Amino acid sequence: MNTIEATIRNTNTRGEVNSLRIKGNIPAIVYGGSDKNQKISLSKKNIKNLIEKKNFLSNIISINL
What we know:
Blueprint: E1 2-8, H1 14-22, E2 25-30, E3 38-43, H2 44-51, E4 61-64
Parallel strand pairs: 1-4
Antiparallel strand pairs: 1-3, 2-3
């Protein structure tokens, strides 16, 4: 099982989200469960490494906040 580090983000405007992208992060939202939706950002480099793995589509990815 693969794990990826994520940080909680407090961005509200499109400009703030674009600045995240410029810094090399990917904005995302975690949905589901009984908790509220959580805005997070992930490292583009880490996501790219996971996608390039041979068995990416058949793996479970765990997110550490």
